[in-house]
Amino acid sequence: MSDNEAIHARTDIDVIVVGYGPVGQMASVLLGQAGHTVVAVERHAQMYGLSRAGHIDDEIMRLLDRVGAGEEFREDAVEWELYDMRNKAFGGDLLMSFDWSVIGPHGYRSHWIFYQNNLELALNRQVERTGRVEVNFSTELVRFDQDAESVTAYVRDRQSGEERTLRAKYMLAADGANSFVRRSLGIEAKEGHVGPNQLVIDTLQKRDLEFEFDNGQFADPERPGCLFQLGKHHRRWEFTLSEDEDPGDYTIDTVWELLKPWVGPEDVEVLRWPIYRFRESMTQEWRRDRIFLIGDAAHTLWPFAGEGMCNGLRDAAAITWRLDLVLRGIASPQVFDSYQDDRQPNMQGWIDYSREIGLPCIIMDKDAAAGRDQFLFAVQQDPSLMPRATVPPGPTAFSRKDDPTAGLTAVQGQVRAGEKEGLLDDVAGRGFQLITTSQGVVDALTEQERAGLERIGASIIVIGAPGSGAPIEDVNGTYRDWFESLGRVAVIARPDYYLFGSATDRDDVHQLVASLSDALGATIPA
Ligand SMILES: Cc1cc2nc3c(=O)[nH]c(=O)nc-3n(C[C@H](O)[C@H](O)[C@H](O)COP(=O)(O)OP(=O)(O)OC[C@H]3O[C@@H](n4cnc5c(N)ncnc54)[C@H](O)[C@@H]3O)c2cc1C
Fold it and tell me: Which of the listed residues 47, 143, 296 should we mutate to test ligand 1's pocket, taking the one with most ligand atoms within 8 A of CB?
């Protein structure tokens, strides 16, 4: 670094976030809310404004509520009720039908459809509220290096051309699928299966619209596609292109031609109609010393499960609690070692699952489509014929060793404490949670164990049946059922909603807390 650069270098930063898409925004708000100083750089002049993600699940809704963005998000989001797959958009046969009006394990409806710009606005509002995050638009990361103490980022103002230097303890690369950071580090992103070209048409409704078949897939071999609401005011149609079609031949006129069976210019305004080639990729290294990859910078998948951004947000949740503890000196940097091993198997599961559910939707060969239809009709009669879909495994790298409950979802239910009723996180607190249905378990904790748990901000939660005198009442019996199915007396949930592990009996709770201490770098004295 030259003297001049050194004078202009900002050195008070904890974390630089490169890229202010939804994943960079989530990382920024989580770190800002934890009290860390963050500088985010985004090369665009404003938030991206290109809506791509349209679906989240209940885990991500829990995360949105954690950062305070859930309420604003829900103002325009739609709870997805029913997901149908037919073999024609109009008058086709029903191939599969899913009732999505269920409550997921995180305590929310399990599928939500929304307009991405509204999600970004809601996240950005919470970022601003932290007062700890400086967001620099029109600012591009052009070079960076790192040493044992810090990361130095050279950023250029795209309007003035002026270069500045930022120095921080860590850097998060949330810079999207073509990640400049990943490429500069020479990290390979292994390519997986390449999907078809897909025309994605986003529209703004000019009036309320309702269709007999909505929010589902039409797996018509003539022209497969799907349609769904993007929140309360937008709608999306997608159409698969065959390999012999040239995306360059598509014009706004062809777009209107495709939309004609549903809507015309009096019904909707076409906002954008990009053509995407669906790809899979997985970074081979998620961390290089003080730099971590998150979001599309680390991985991409086919979007059929609506889980690409969701997984980026999972990355943000997984890395920020580690950064928070290390920056506060509460955990050793050894907690970073488990980031890749936690995230990669889960991500690969989502990549496989997304392809498995996508492939039957995009068949353009008539005979193959007829075979698929026959198979799915048979499945309607006998569901056991359906092969088991991949279930993405939970994270088990940061966990109690040899614990069969490690990596399971930390279930959330409705609870009551005095006058306050709501989901557990709201009532009992977020972060690490030691949850038990037995007061005796908590009474058995030593002072040191309690102090250690408090130090990492863990909530100690005793849940019992309504009227049992337990400090937190299990309104719908969620925790009674969960603990019964686990056969455990206590669990420790991680801040990113997976189990660190559980205890088989009261004595074992001491071992459980000690193993958390070990995993964090011996900060909870036994
Ligand atoms: C058609 C389609 C449908 C999808 N549907 C869903 C869905 O329903 N649900 C879901 O969860 N996911 C979905 N996805 C995936 C989702 O859109 C992405 O996973 C998500 O947008 C990735 O977010 P990100 O923040 O990681 O990256 P991006 O949104 O790409 O943001 C990266 C940011 O980094 C900035 N940047 C890049 N380089 C630099 C630099 N050098 N300096 C400064 N800034 C830089 C870019 O300008 C950009 O703003 C879909 C994707 C597609 C294509």
Answer: 296
Residue 247 lies in a domain: no
Please give the Cα distance from 357 to 65 (Å, whole number): 29
The number of distinct structural domains making up the chain is: 2
| CATH number of the domain within which 434 lies | 3.40.30.120
> Considering the entire predicted model, what is its pTM?
0.96
Q: How far is the CA of 204 from the centre of ligand 1 (A)?
A: 21
User: Which tens digits make up the pLDDT trace of 301-330?
Assistant: 999 999 999 999 999 999 999 999 999 999
Residues 140 and 20 in one domain: yes
Could you tell me which residues come within 8 angstroms of residue 171 by beta carbon, excluding any fewer than 6 positions away? 15, 16, 17, 18, 144, 146, 151, 153, 181, 290, 291, 292
Q: Is the CB of 42 under 6 A from ligand 1?
A: yes
Annotate 254-314 with DSSP letters as a single string: HHHHHHTTT--TTTEEEEE--EEE---EEES-SEETTEEE-GGGTEE--GGGS-HHHHHHH
- HEC assignment per residue over 408-469: CECCCCEEEECCEEEEHHHHHCCCCEEEECCHHHHHCCCHHHHHHHHHCCCEEEEEECCCCC
Domain of residue 59, residue span:
3-69+116-191+281-355
Calculate mean pLDDT across residues 172-186.
Answer: 98
**Domain-embedded: residue 525:** no
Residue 2 has pLDDT above 50, yes or no: no
